[in-house]
Design brief:
about 140 residues; alpha+beta; His-Me finger endonuclease fold; two-stranded antiparallel ribbon; Znf_AD
Length: about 140
């Protein structure tokens, strides 16, 4: 008759040293809970674990393994984001923000510069004509 070292049930159980994949039950206890079960070398029957405790231990072991792997994956993902920070794109604007306006200059200090070409520019007269309710600007109206 074996004694489960986790819940003290009596029956025919698995040895804590039994290898499952690449790890033993005693390794799982150490990894998950930092628990070392004392082993009496002359009595292997008291160094066992029952099926119910095996299921609970395996659940805890695989859960811890899952969390560690996913935390590592998240850390790598976060490092990738830190290397390439997201840039917020703003829609293009045709207006100049008020703070960036150049109209803050005192106009009294400016001198009006007159270019020589200003004299050569011919001022044209425009005639505004209304046709069926619409206004039209006619450049260089033809004299009738």
């Amino acid at each position: 008759m074996d004694l489960c070292r986790c819940c003290h049930a009596e029956g025919c159980f698995q040895s804590l040293t039994e290898l499952i994949n690449t790890v033993t039950y005693e390794d799982m206890l150490k990894i998950c809970f930092d628990i070392m079960i004392c082993h009496a070398p002359d009595n292997n029957r008291q160094y066992a674990i029952c099926n119910q405790c095996i299921l609970k231990l395996q659940d805890a072991y695989y859960f811890k393994k899952q969390v560690i792997e996913n935390e590592q994956r998240f850390s790598e993902y976060k490092n990738d984001l830190d290397m390439f920070p997201e840039v917020k794109l703003e829609p293009p604007s045709d207006t100049v923000p008020i703070g960036d306006s150049d109209d803050d200059i005192d106009l009294s200090t400016l001198k009006k510069l007159k270019s020589k070409s200003d004299k050569r520019i011919k001022k044209e007269k425009h005639k505004i004509t209304e046709i069926t309710g619409l206004l039209f600007i006619i450049q260089n109206p033809v004299k009738a």
